[in-house]
Design goal:
10 strands; six-stranded mixed sheet; alpha/beta; four-stranded antiparallel sheet
Length: 236
């Protein structure tokens, strides 16, 4: 049984059909990447899974339970969490307060454990714990967004464009951290414009075009697929 199963999912914004019958799965322990052009439906897929937008049809199964119509908070309690595109930290609050807000569904005794984990994975956040989040660099804000998502000790961590707008050396650090988080037992569903880097760390991937999945394979095979190279990897 897959940890996450998305079955024939449709999501619309008014008359615009953003997702048109997507079906895919994520096995426990995997890193799975969704790649595709801007506007293909990748972010809408994540937002539909976590409940930020309501699908018009289809089902979402998580850990053997149909969670399609649950509220986002209920999905977080079950172990599903999203670090959204654009980081969306609370700029006027401290790093530590941002982290604690990520644990709003957790028992109090887990908050301290979550902070310890965050500061162990991201030492720079420990150094900045009293600093306002809005004064952090872009890379530090991205680390904070990921660390905040991890405060609930999720079974499934969904990451939307974690490398967006970051310098190449910071991007490499972020992807190293994603691999480390996965090695610690967290399953990861990744949406990422840097398809080459994403596929290099992924067990499997799905290619989305205009709201439909058109190709799936291992990360390595997709990275070596001529059509994928031409469309998403700069033809290299």
């Amino acid at each position: 049984m897959a940890l996450l199963e998305v079955k024939n999912l449709h999501t619309s914004y008014g008359a615009i059909k953003a997702i048109r019958g997507i079906s895919f799965s994520v096995e426990e322990g995997e890193i799975v990447t969704l790649i595709g052009a801007n506007g293909a439906g990748k972010t809408t897929t994540l937002n539909s899974i976590v409940g930020l937008v309501r699908p018009s049809a289809g089902e979402i199964w998580f850990n053997g339970e149909n969670v399609t119509n649950l509220d986002p908070a209920d999905k977080v309690k079950r172990g599903m969490v999203l670090a959204p595109e654009g980081r969306q930290v609370f700029p006027d609050l401290s790093v530590e307060t941002n982290l604690k807000l990520g644990a709003y569904t957790s028992p109090k005794n887990k908050v301290f454990e979550g902070l310890e984990q965050a500061y162990s994975l991201f030492p720079v956040l420990s150094e900045r714990r009293t600093q306002l989040a809005g004064t952090l660099s872009g890379g530090e804000q991205q680390m904070l967004a990921v660390a905040r998502a991890l405060m609930t000790f999720p079974k499934l961590l969904m990451l939307d464009e974690p490398s967006l707008g970051l310098a190449p050396i910071i991007v490499a650090n972020i992807f190293d951290l994603i691999k480390k988080i996965n090695s610690m037992g967290t399953t990861i569903l990744l949406v990422e414009q840097n398809a080459r880097m994403a596929l290099s760390i992924s067990h499997r991937g799905y290619v989305i075009e205009t709201g439909r999945i058109v190709l799936t394979d291992t990360g390595e095979n997709l990275a070596n697929n001529e059509k994928v190279k031409e469309a998403y990897l700069g033809g290299l």
